[in-house]
Amino acid sequence: MTNALFHYSPVPERPPISWPGGAPVAVYVGLNVEHFLIDRPSTSIWPGTADLVPDALNAGWRDYGARVGIWRTMESLDRHGIRASVLLNSAVAEHHPQIVEAGRSRDWAWLAHGRTNSILQTDMTLDEERRFLTDVVETIEAATGQRPRGWMGPGLTETFNTPALLAELGLSYLLDWTNDDQPYPLTVPGMISVPYSVELNDLVLFGRGTTGPEFVRIVQDQYEQLRADSEHSGRVMALALHPFVIGQPFRHRYLDQALEFLAAQPDAWLTTSDEIAEHYLRTRVTRS
Q1: pLDDT at residue 202, rounded to an integer
Q2: Which residues sit opposite 52 in a β-bridge?
Q3: What is the 3-state secondary structure (H, E, C) of 37-93?
Q4: Cross-strand bridge partners of residue 111
């Protein structure tokens, strides 16, 4: 099957990207703020009990993020003056409204991230998905006071119809395709892909046994290599965080060190995914 959502575009052949102020790297923090169902298997730290109802072990691990981890993570973001780009399950508005209110007071950028991360977005008909996406977007808009401009599916899932349906709802970018260090246009008019990472991602890294000091070094290495790559065209660095992972007490100091490093880079554009997408759409050369 041919991928009709976007074209192959080798990075050396593209028109150069210039970020505001001549910054070589645009950096954003993708903060996953999610809701999980008590009676569905979901992201787990130990698979041995994942099919149980209730699964106290894994459900409690995930719930730590909303009860404790998110508030600890906010402390570091605030300390270093970083606005989060929040990947928000719309169910959070009902179940954890205090988090939404805290984010509103911090002027976070809000992206739609499905209804719950316990249900992946697959096998929907066109009309079912249109109703689903409309409900998610409108729920988030009502709760946050902002209509989302960006999308990431639960588990980075989507259908072949998703980009066009999102465009119908006024969204302009998605994060599901983690195949680039730069934004690029999709074949849906007005819709682009903005880089996200399943590698520079606390859930993946710490799930593989990465230590706190190693995490800090990885963040530094990622930025330094992207800065080196950006000699002729800007790059994007996404740092993906989950409060039930990075918000654990023994990891907190290492998140703080990583954010301190990023905030101290004089040539970084520390921004949001919304602003990256807006700048690219406003300044890019349209694909012929």
Answers
A1: 98
A2: none
A3: CCCCCCCCCCHHHCCCCCCHHHHHHHHHHHHHHHHHHHHHHHHCCCCCEEEECCCHH
A4: 87
Report the C-alpha gap between 202 and 214 in whole angstroms. Answer: 11
**Count of alpha carbons within 13 Å of 36, Cβ hemisphere only?**
25
Q: Which residue ranges form the domains of the chain, and what is each CATH number? A: 27-40+68-229+237-283 (3.20.20.370)
Q: What is the pLDDT of residues 26-80, one digit of tens each?
A: 999 999 999 999 999 999 999 999 999 999 999 999 999 999 999 999 999 999 9
For 207, left (φ over 0), alpha (ψ -120 to 50), or beta? alpha
Residue ranges in 208-263 assigned as alpha helix (H): 212-229, 243-246, 249-263
Say how far apart CA 2 and CA 31 lie, in whole Å: 32
Q: Which phi and psi angles does 267 have, rounded to 5°?
A: -105, 10
